């Protein structure tokens, strides 16, 4: 029990035989390993790469996520294949699936043109991919060690994405164009640079949008801080610290208000868990990062600041708000179940895009859709808070706080962009929802809930 890397709960009474113990630290190609493969495919290659002749649901990472959903579903067919005990994230996921299905049927009943019907089908397929990663994380991660390995690998991948973004911004070389893998095709083109102001341009790294890139960087920061403080090995702590600084430095290079607000929300939530010494250290590091940006990219911080002070003159904001009067019109027609998921197709409405996931959901899925979408986030927050209250170690409470901050950021980002369209961000959020379910299970006092084993046949 004193070996480095063991969590106090890594050994527990086994269901094999009374009075025996079984380790939950098994080295094999398990759920955590497959989730890490999916995360690598999600972050290391551009978000617009797909399997040929498929839609954006054909991203390699999303196809693997669908495979994980199938894996989870197959384990539910036999009690000896699934871990026993309750899991609230299952009920939240089922409610989300049921609410979206109801909107899907309502859309079919009103009669849809082919383009909208295809959009609905795409939405349902993508939903299964999103829920697959949540369910497999909530039910399939066997112990704290494997959970931390998934989240640590996420931090490393975010650090890689940050490096690509920093090189793009400082050298004005779009490395994403050179990351196209053989056998995959680019759908919609690799996102390039976007001019912002007179002397600066926005970068997106391997993400599909500048806002998506900035939001991911904000979400990764608290997890990077966590592993920089509590990593089991010195090299892990150092790598996490470097990745955290890279993510914090890369975020302003997207020149996005959303990213700045998201990072601010993350730090406010994490401060609840931190002591005064930690708050002082983070403030000092913030000054160092800001000073480094002033040297490396003179004028960048002024451009970011002007996005807030000059918001009244920003056409990107007026472009969003000018379309909002249509929301009330469409909502009044179908307030309960909406028009059908993803049926507000820009090609049919003169390029109209509602850059607000909440408004998009209320139009396409009605009040039911908004309720189940919010329910997924609120369930994840509640489970992480419960796990925080149960935890006895500072390390575990800190991880739970980071998981809460990720869900709060997701709620905020959804108010500034149609977040479910950007699959790197969406899959990351659903992965962390599943992690909230995992920490709830791993802190549960009941053995039959916490166990990583499956029921064994009795002799």
From TrEMBL:
<feature type="transmembrane region" description="Helical">
    <location>
        <begin position="207"/>
        <end position="227"/>
    </location>
</feature>
<feature type="transmembrane region" description="Helical">
    <location>
        <begin position="89"/>
        <end position="107"/>
    </location>
</feature>
<feature type="transmembrane region" description="Helical">
    <location>
        <begin position="119"/>
        <end position="138"/>
    </location>
</feature>
<feature type="transmembrane region" description="Helical">
    <location>
        <begin position="239"/>
        <end position="255"/>
    </location>
</feature>
<feature type="transmembrane region" description="Helical">
    <location>
        <begin position="31"/>
        <end position="51"/>
    </location>
</feature>
<keyword id="KW-0472">Membrane</keyword>
<feature type="transmembrane region" description="Helical">
    <location>
        <begin position="283"/>
        <end position="308"/>
    </location>
</feature>
<protein>
    <submittedName>
        <fullName>O-antigen ligase</fullName>
    </submittedName>
</protein>
<feature type="transmembrane region" description="Helical">
    <location>
        <begin position="358"/>
        <end position="386"/>
    </location>
</feature>
<dbReference type="Pfam" id="PF04932">
    <property type="entry name" value="Wzy_C"/>
</dbReference>
<feature type="transmembrane region" description="Helical">
    <location>
        <begin position="421"/>
        <end position="440"/>
    </location>
</feature>
<dbReference type="GO" id="GO:0016874">
    <property type="term" value="F:ligase activity"/>
</dbReference>
<dbReference type="InterPro" id="IPR007016">
    <property type="entry name" value="O-antigen_ligase-rel_domated"/>
</dbReference>
<feature type="transmembrane region" description="Helical">
    <location>
        <begin position="150"/>
        <end position="171"/>
    </location>
</feature>
<feature type="transmembrane region" description="Helical">
    <location>
        <begin position="57"/>
        <end position="77"/>
    </location>
</feature>
<dbReference type="GO" id="GO:0016020">
    <property type="term" value="C:membrane"/>
</dbReference>
<keyword id="KW-0436">Ligase</keyword>
<keyword id="KW-1133">Transmembrane helix</keyword>
<feature type="domain" description="O-antigen ligase-related">
    <location>
        <begin position="244"/>
        <end position="374"/>
    </location>
</feature>
<dbReference type="InterPro" id="IPR051533">
    <property type="entry name" value="WaaL-like"/>
</dbReference>
<keyword id="KW-0812">Transmembrane</keyword>
């Amino acid at each position: 029990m004193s070996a480095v890397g063991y969590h106090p709960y890594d050994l527990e009474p086994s269901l094999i035989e009374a009075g025996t113990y079984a380790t939950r630290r098994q080295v094999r190609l398990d759920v955590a390993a497959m989730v890490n493969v999916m995360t690598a495919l999600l972050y290391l290659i551009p978000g617009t790469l797909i399997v040929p002749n498929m839609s954006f649901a054909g991203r390699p990472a999303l196809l693997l996520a669908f495979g994980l959903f199938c894996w989870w579903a197959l384990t539910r067919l036999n009690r000896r294949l699934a871990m026993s005990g309750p899991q609230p994230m299952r009920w939240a996921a089922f409610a989300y699936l049921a609410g979206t299905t109801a909107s899907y049927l309502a859309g079919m009943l009103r009669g849809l043109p082919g383009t909208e019907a295809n959009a609905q089908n795409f939405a349902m397929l993508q939903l299964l991919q999103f829920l697959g990663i949540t369910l497999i994380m909530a039910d399939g991660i066997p112990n704290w060690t494997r959970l931390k390995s998934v989240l640590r690998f996420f931090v490393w991948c975010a650090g890689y994405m940050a490096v690509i973004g920093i090189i793009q911004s400082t050298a004005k070389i779009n490395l994403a164009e050179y990351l196209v893998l053989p056998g995959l095709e680019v759908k919609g083109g690799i996102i390039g640079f976007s001019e912002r102001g007179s002397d600066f341009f926005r970068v997106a790294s391997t993400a599909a949008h500048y806002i998506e890139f900035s939001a991911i960087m904000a979400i990764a920061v608290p997890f990077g801080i966590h592993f920089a403080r509590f990593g089991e090995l010195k090299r892990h702590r150092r790598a996490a610290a470097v990745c955290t600084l890279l993510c914090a430095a890369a975020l302003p290079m997207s020149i996005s208000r959303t990213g700045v607000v998201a990072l601010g929300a993350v730090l406010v939530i994490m401060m609840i868990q931190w002591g005064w010494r930690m708050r002082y250290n983070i403030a000092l590091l913030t000054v160092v990062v800001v000073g480094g940006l002033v040297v490396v990219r003179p004028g960048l911080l002024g451009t970011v600041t002007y996005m807030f002070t000059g918001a009244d003159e920003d056409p990107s904001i007026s472009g969003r708000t000018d379309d909002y009067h249509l929301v009330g019109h469409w909502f009044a027609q179908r307030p309960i179940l909406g028009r059908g998921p993803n049926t507000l197709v820009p090609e049919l409405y003169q390029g109209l895009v509602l850059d607000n996931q909440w408004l998009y959901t209320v139009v396409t899925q009605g009040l039911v859709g908004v309720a189940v979408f919010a329910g997924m986030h609120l369930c994840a927050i509640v489970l992480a808070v419960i796990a925080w209250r149960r935890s006895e170690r500072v390390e575990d409470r800190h991880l739970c706080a980071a998981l809460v901050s990720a869900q709060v950021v997701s709620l905020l980002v959804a108010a500034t962009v149609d977040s479910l369209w950007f699959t790197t961000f969406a899959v990351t959020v659903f992965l962390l929802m599943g992690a909230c379910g995992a920490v709830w299970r791993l802190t549960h006092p009941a053995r039959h809930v916490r166990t990583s084993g499956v029921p064994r046949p009795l002799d």
